[in-house]
């Protein structure tokens, strides 16, 4: 939004801004913020930053937690959810003493990954298009204790309400894709989300009801450069949750909140550019994909098991990655096949649009780490000329769920649990260290966090176990 401090200062005066909100991401992708009066927005702030405790958000140890936030002026936007006129900036974290970019800050990792892309000479920019799927519920409750474990969600659209009487326009399971009103009862909510996003500088491509009958939605943005894609993702998640909250509803990007219903992913469309040219386009290639694109795909799929620890870092992620729900569970690429880990869209067949999407990820990831990791895997594929066909990754343009079990076993599989993904990353992390983007010690700390999370879920009795085993 702003090209420099003076432009931002003038905007603050002209629009009677009273508060400055500084947002930043923790190691796990959650957004945090600290707010200051507009009177404190000065050149010293841009030089010295605002102090915070990095140990509280997983970025530093307790004994040396002091860090500072310095706002990225280009990310400035008015926040519509506060009573006081508030100008918000996305920040990166810096060392408190030297003011050097803090290497473990997720946003700084994404910046270094794209800087490494430029250093290689392969391309000068990566372009990304995350897709945002989420559920909107009218009520959610959950409880976990020594003697109880339960949750319940409710949606006004769900056909489990059909027996109560009323208007009769409910959406059955798996029946929500592009549902029309009056079944689609969330149009006004999604439209409000999109209008707020555009006011905040995030362009919207479209929105619609998704497959999940009880309240699943999708918002899609145009393609953005890597850092803007990461920033936009944080804003999208924030706006979706805040608009729902404002309407006394609740939104979640949780991959699998409903049993037997479609899960929510965050597919990543991606391409590389050099000198304004799309390196992934070849008029005569498979799906209009160039040789560089195929090598990049080879890198993504070869490192796919390790990638999932960064793109699908929750136990709930693997409730979604199961057969039968258009969720990719096998490492292959395809033209238009939505069960493939990598899909080449048939509609993206022009020099300026040719690309592919990596379909396993979901929004429990730290988007900056997920972007950086995918890019580094792709770079590794190009550098090593990893041929996806020679590696057994396809292409496969058939419905593999119609294959025999023996046929499906020939396809390399992706992890089916968080523990498997952690083990894969532990054994395959060197590609992430290229260009100094990630740090090995940081990745080891990250794995300890994921394993503790997995153990916390594994060690608790599951409510369904009561039905299975109580009479033992």
Structural commentary:
This protein has 472 residues and is an alpha+beta fold. The protein folds into two domains: 86 residues, Glutamine synthetase, N-terminal domain (Ubiquitin-like (UB roll)); 345 residues, Glutamine synthetase/guanido kinase, catalytic domain (Creatine Kinase, Chain A, domain 2). The chain is 31% helix and 21% strand. The chain is built from 13 helices and 18 strands. The strands form three sheets. Strands 7, 10, 11, 12, 13, 14, 15, 16, 17 and 18 form a ten-stranded mixed β-sheet that branches. Helix 3 packs parallel to helix 9, helix 4 crosses helix 5 and helix 7 packs antiparallel against helix 9. The protein is globular and about 65 Å long.
How much of the sequence is in beta strands?
A: 15-25%
Proportion in helices:
25-40%
| Largest β sheet strand count, sense and barrel closure | 10 strands, mixed
| Oligomer status | single chain
Shape: globular
What's the gyration radius in Å?
Answer: 23 Å
Number of strands: 18
Total helices: the number is 13
Mean pLDDT: 94
Total separate domains: 2
Structural class based on helices, strands and sheet pairing: alpha+beta
* End-to-end Cα distance: 64 Å
CATH architecture of the largest domain: 2-Layer Sandwich
The CATH superfamily of the largest domain appears as Glutamine synthetase/guanido kinase, catalytic domain
CATH topology tier name of the largest domain: Creatine Kinase, Chain A, domain 2
- Which CATH top level class of the largest domain fits? Alpha Beta
